[in-house]
Fold this sequence. Notes:
The protein is an alpha+beta fold. The protein is about 20% helix and about 45% strand. It has helices spanning about 5, 10-15, 60-75, 85, 95-100, 105-110, 200-220, 230-235, 310-320, and strands spanning about 20, 25-30, 45, 50, 80, 120-145, 150-175, 180-185, 185-195, 225-230, 235-245, 245-250, 255, 260-265, 275-280, 290-295, 305-310, 320-330, 335-345.
Amino acid sequence: MTRRRIYVGWVGVMLLSGMLCGGCEKEIAIWQYPIFWEPGELEAIAVVPFRNTSIQDPEAGNTIADRLAVALAANGTYPKVYNRGDLQALLTEEDLRMLAGGEGDTAAILKRVTAVQAIITGTVSQFDASTQSHQRQDPQYAWDQYGNPYFVGNSIRTFTRNDAIVTVTATMLSTKTGQTIHATQTAQWHMWAEGSPPEMSMDACLAVAVNVVTSQLLAEFAIVGRVIKVKPEEVFRITTGELYDGKWEDKNSFTTADETMTVVINMPAVADRSQFRMTVIRANTKKDLFELDFQWSRDAPVTGQVYIFNPSAIAAGGGGPGEYVLKFYAGVEPIMENRFYIHRAR
Length: 346
């Protein structure tokens, strides 16, 4: 699978991933992988027209399906994405209608689509936009020569509120078995604007809601870049290597005779399969003494994944006892660090 397109535009975010967020939180740029996705398993997928149970727009199902197909094709997770137009050459109108409506023998229909390994279908339950206006009277005053206010009339202003809400669910089905590969959580967005006049029209609110819902669905089916917030003291720690009441005890002092320094990483599950890196340098220097690249897994122990460094070897390579820094990288920039000390063994 070609990943190059996925990376476009995200490198810049990775460069900014070391920004401080709030008090003690850090922002980390990661790749979010669909739970079901494995390299090479799904090379070609198709997006069929979605079932539309909303009231206002009869084309809502086609609109969401088309937007999702375009987003998946641009994303690059799947080398080939068939859209609604492509499917007209693979299936009959009746087949497409039954898939969109969840009717008939879905498995039998899917098995006829030999060009793809999976099909995405779904339901649009809300695709609604509305506008409401009301008038408000504001009293107006003037001042006489003595500085006393007096009523001169009412100013009438029209205030308008525009609302739009889009709600969608989607499912990926295997064309080989007809079984569900992945069913999404409900994707929903409510956009509104209010004012005299409002900053966004009713149609503009609907367009934003469609875009956000499409992005939510994309994140369910494709590899996407996102930024998560973590607390360094919870996800990146140097410890004694021992748990007490289910918690790690921190440690930042070692000797040149010590051969074990236990580093515990405990990233959130959403960082599954994202790549990270740790390096050790002597304080106030730039040379990496040791480095470790690793891939995070959602299957890591609930207490965190343990990595072992050797203080004795670090001191030997770093000029002896002193202060050292363990850095944590997500992308090209270090975003967290822990300082520790190595003393001469007695």
